[in-house]
Amino acid sequence: MDAAEIMVRALQYGAGLIGLGLLAATLWAGEAPGRASRQVLAACCGLLAASSLANGLIFSYLVLDSWREVFTSDGLLFILSTFEPAWGFVGRAALAAAALIALLSVRGKAGAWIAMSLLAAAISTFAWTGHAASGEGWQGGLHKVSTITHIIAAAVWLGSLGLFLSRLLSPEGAASEYRQRTARLLLRFSGLGSMTVSVLVVTGAVNAVLIAGPGNVISTLETGYGGWLMVKLALFAGMLGVAALNRFILAPALAERLTDQAAHRMRLAVMVEVILGAGVVACVSVLGVTSPHPG
Ligand code: HEM
Questions:
Q1: I need a labelling partner for 165 at 20 to 30 A (CA). Which of 101, 216, 223, 239 fits?
Q2: Are 121 and 97 contacting, i.e. CB atoms less than 8 angstroms apart?
Q3: Distance 284 CA to ligand 1 centre (A)
Q4: What is the pLDDT of residue 2?
């Protein structure tokens, strides 16, 4: 069942982070999502709603230890009345469905803003279905705020990569005017990019200390949990390296030369960053169901 739980967590993170991030990046670029983006966004909302419900059912099964019980009203009532995380899954599914309706029914930037707000609320519910859910008192509150801030920063980075890749892969991409606009967008992102990285590092460190316990960080690094966190940080370091290459070398070269070769190199680098980002999300999907305490 662990594999199924890890899979549905990965689907939720993937759909939620890309959906929210793509909307945020598109609005940050001063635009409304075009037809192709709207289809991708609608798919993200639908997948987030479905995988959140699936995660809720798996959670209920792990508690009740019987699928037959899960699908009885007594079973579901027991889960909803006893376990806070169950509301996290239901709330996430409902908010993702509402974002889908907003995207399909309200056109232009207005629809995008409504959907983005609903998706931000949807992925904030992860703070009630992961390790942050078990925190109590002020530490519990700090952990939830840190987790929500962390996930939104993660969405901004991964979603922006989605926007840049869609621009670099666009059939219009060969036109120099379009290529110039894409290069300007990449250069403009550097300020927001640096801020996103700082927020990820600070909130990530806070998450790690609160999950391990202030005196146990080193011993936690020696566990399976610590191993996955190390893999995640290595992938993150790789993303940072590629992001620096994009910012200081490839994007200025594209803006200056506008050649096919410069565009090709930029496209390749953004694809590498996306693949490393997918690896980070895969690690997080395992981390959330792995105990940080040895033995
Ligand atoms: C591109 C970079 C990153 C992305 C996309 C990312 C994404 C995420 C996501 C989606 C979560 C799940 C939160 C939850 O459901 O509770 C998470 C948790 C976490 N992140 Fe990151 N993160 C990134 C960078 C970092 C960095 C730099 C650090 C450390 C300094 C870090 C440390 C953590 C920790 C400790 C957790 C809690 C994991 C758990 O649930 O046990 N992350 N991250």
A1: 101
A2: no
A3: 6
A4: 86
